[in-house]
Amino acid sequence: MLLLNQLPDFRQPLHPVDAQTLGSAGADAIERHLAGRAEHMPTPLRALPSLARELGIGALHLKDEGQRLGLGSFKALGGAFAVTRLVLEAASERLGRTLDEADLTSPEVRAIASEMTFACATDGNHGRSVAQGAQLVGARSVIFMHGGVSEPRATAIARFGAEIVRVPGTYDDSIVEAARVANEKGWTTVSDTSWDGYERIPGLVMQGYTAIIREALRQLPEPPTHVFVQAGVGGIAAAIAAQLALEFGEKRPVFTVVDPARAACLFESVRAGRPTKIAHGAPTVMAMLECYDPSPLAWRVLSRTADAFMTVADEVAVEAMNRLARPTGSDPAVVAGESGAAGFAGLLAALRDPQARAALKLDGSSRVFAVITEGATDPERYAELVGLTPAEVAGKA
Of 128, 198, 256, 311, which is least surrounded by CB within 10 A? Predict the structure, then answer.
């Protein structure tokens, strides 16, 4: 299903705070952070000309975040960046002088960081980033996970020294519990979703994601005409949409937000005309996107900058994984996890629906950009869905 944005604030200017956080100054800040990370390299942009011809579009480029900072997901950018900013702010206040990224390794800053505990809820990827950030600066992390998160994902987080706390219920339940315990114990909550009175830290997390589109615009041969980005609570979609709106203004590409059909909180919010929490239903295969309550901060951005909102069925997401694993012509193979392929799956669904294709003005000249937000962060599940191991697919890249 597809809905065009007809909200009252569509194409209105971004809120000044969002423009500051997610604009060029924000993107510059995450680039400075990444420059200090020894393991950082820009993630690859995959050109798929053969698949583009097969689909009847002019060009298809995918930003492969499965390569990001050794964590296999775009979320490596957000949580760790927020943790380092918060440590630097706390240390600047304690030491009475302005500090920057180069000071993170100093003994006095690390001594202050060692007294700090960062908590968050996660479906897997955000928790890894927060835990990695805490380990980088010498802080403690406590990660809250609901029962649907697989043990391999929990183990991947624990490797960074994080304490894992299991919470009954859904991702939304784990968010509430993480915030409750952190408030009770005086810890700092680093959430990738916002709520009333809590926006600045999720804003820092989203700021980290602006690196994706900043890099992509340097790598692309031409700016895209169409962009498809998947959404859980909406953070990555909002970060990319904001950058594109500020960079290109009225000439920005057509931006489509893609929700899992079984967890379509942003889609239903557009239908309702306001941020809307939806009922928990059957699990979706796109587990990293299984969110039922949109981030108000992301909504504030997307209501202004997204042109359309759509849903994709689980079977289309699995098809997208398989099509990328078995390339057409001389195209490279791409390892895309079940949530990572969702933006591309949105393109497949839109192209098959004549009304959606017309509404989005997709045709033979369209230059489409999408983000593979994660690789095979659960290798066993990936092999089950694709019939090939991640290593076998990567060998064909």
Answer: 198
